[in-house]
């Protein structure tokens, strides 16, 4: 079936993996104009319309959903189906982009873009974020979780049960799942537990767990919003015994469907390597013993985390997590690195900013705070959210240059500080009298990274502010100012 036939406003055409067409008829939204319950208001406010319960469209989606639930299908209740409409300019642009990429992939793959339907489960809030902003979360799993690469994991239409397991129950006791159109193109097999995050070669587009009978489609983050188009939200109720009723889903695969952690992920050996710089040998031996018990399946992951918190202390762990976050941000923000020829390279891009809002330093914001934001004056950083990076940024040129070694990271071009200047050792000498040893160790580590040109002067200052706190630093600055004034008067 050609993707041109799939006009969301005019018709539906659902094709499951065996290419059996189960619907190709005019859409009938039935009682979509009727009053919608408050529990579904979050979907209608996100630009969706409820599909009438008696409509043919609702019936065929219900049939497809229930058949994919296996033994749990008889106890599954479809409460509502909401349809995504291309009703505003942004959504129309997303749909047109999806069609253009379908045509491009079809041209590359000999006329077949391999467009499939697939499920994506999550919390009600997450699904609404996807509908409004697009996909933005695509991270590696935690150490004891498995996954098929680092990407958006979609569930083929005939395996609804897998998607239902990854959906979260809301305050009304309902689960919600997205039914999406996915451009697979030419897929390659991705091994269980792989950390792959992009195609292995130019000939392939996406990943699958099995080439013959896939249960996972893996869409890489670079194309997640151009190759996935959300069509419907299905709200449903399942029995509490669902994990026991559904068969054929290994535990390792179920764990791959869990939501990724919000804190930055690192391997446990990497965490131990950092902690070894701050903890005495006895505590490190205790942590290693706990990790060995976890690897031997004698303790669970939550128990391991709890023990590490008890041994290392939350204050040190929070400092380590913040440090890792800053390192991740520094790597992402680094504009260029020196290559083997001593040259640096920068991309000059066209960026669609639209209306911009101010984002505070250290913010965890990952999407617009509202639909309408104000323009600001004289920005030095543009932040393009991950959900729109590939639709709002177009690389135009690569500029190759050589920077003078006397200006590492360009910090010397910044205006001089207005606060009284002091050397970093002098500042640490003062702070050592006011901060606990753990924080001082973090400050020393930050300074060593700065001396090794791993972070800029601005990044060092930001880290010092986060570790010491602005209130303490302001007090130190005022104290130095008073001393300078006293010396001047003497």
From TrEMBL:
Its main location: nucleus. Residues 259-330, 415-486 form the RST domain. It is found in: Nucleus. Keywords: Developmental protein, Nucleus, Stress response. One of its GO terms (cellular component) is nucleus. InterPro entries: Poly(ADP-ribose)pol_cat_dom (IPR012317), RCD1/SRO1-5 (IPR044964), RST (IPR022003). Residues 34-258 form the PARP catalytic domain. It holds the Pfam family RST. One of its GO terms (molecular function) is NAD+ poly-ADP-ribosyltransferase activity. This is Inactive poly [ADP-ribose] polymerase SRO2.
């Amino acid at each position: 079936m050609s993707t041109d036939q799939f006009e969301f406003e005019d018709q539906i055409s659902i094709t499951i993996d065996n290419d059996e067409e189960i619907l190709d008829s005019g859409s009938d939204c039935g009682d979509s104009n009727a009053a919608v319950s408050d529990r579904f208001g979050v979907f209608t406010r996100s630009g969706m319309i409820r599909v009438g319960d008696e409509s043919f469209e609702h019936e065929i989606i219900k049939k497809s959903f229930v058949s994919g639930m296996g033994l749990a299908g008889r106890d599954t209740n479809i409460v509502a189906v909401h349809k995504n409409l291309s009703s505003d300019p942004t959504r129309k642009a997303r749909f047109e982009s999806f069609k253009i990429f379908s045509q491009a992939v079809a041209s590359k793959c000999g006329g077949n873009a391999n467009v499939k339907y697939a499920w994506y489960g999550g919390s009600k809030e997450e699904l609404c974020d996807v509908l409004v902003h697009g996909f933005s979360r695509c991270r590696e799993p935690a150490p004891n979780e498995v996954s098929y690469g680092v990407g958006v994991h979609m569930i083929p239409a005939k395996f609804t049960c897998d998607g239902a397991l990854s959906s979260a129950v809301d305050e009304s006791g309902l689960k919600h799942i997205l039914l999406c159109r996915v451009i697979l193109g030419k897929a390659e097999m991705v091994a269980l537990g792989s950390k792959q995050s992009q195609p292995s070669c130019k000939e392939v587009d996406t990943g699958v767990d099995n080439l013959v009978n896939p249960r996972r489609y893996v869409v890489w983050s670079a194309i997640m919003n151009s190759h996935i188009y959300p069509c419907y939200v299905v709200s449903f109720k399942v029995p509490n015994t669902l994990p026991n009723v559904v068969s054929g889903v290994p535990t390792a695969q179920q764990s791959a469907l869990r939501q990724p952690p919000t804190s930055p992920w690192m391997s446990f050996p990497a965490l131990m390597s950092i902690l070894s710089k701050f903890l005495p040998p006895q505590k490190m031996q205790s942590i290693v013993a706990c990790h060995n018990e976890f690897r031997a399946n004698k303790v669970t992951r939550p128990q391991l985390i709890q023990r590490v918190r008890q041994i290392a202390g939350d204050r040190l762990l929070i400092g380590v997590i913040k440090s890792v976050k800053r390192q991740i941000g520094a790597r992402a923000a680094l504009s260029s690195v020196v290559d083997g020829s001593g040259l640096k390279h920068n991309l000059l891009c066209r960026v669609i900013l639209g209306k911009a809002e101010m984002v505070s330093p250290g913010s965890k914001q990952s999407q617009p705070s509202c639909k309408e934001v104000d323009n600001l004056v004289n920005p030095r950083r543009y932040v393009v959210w991950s959900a729109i990076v590939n639709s709002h940024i177009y690389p135009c040129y690569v500029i190759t240059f050589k920077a003078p070694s006397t200006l590492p990271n360009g910090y010397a071009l910044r205006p001089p500080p207005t606060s009284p200047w002091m050397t970093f050792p002098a500042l640490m000498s003062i702070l050592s009298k006011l901060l606990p040893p753990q924080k001082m160790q973090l400050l020393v580590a930050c300074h060593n990274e700065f001396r090794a040109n791993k972070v800029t002067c601005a990044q060092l200052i930001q880290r010092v502010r986060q570790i010491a706190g602005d209130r303490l630093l302001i007090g130190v600055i005022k104290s130095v100012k008073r001393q300078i004034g006293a010396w001047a008067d003497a």
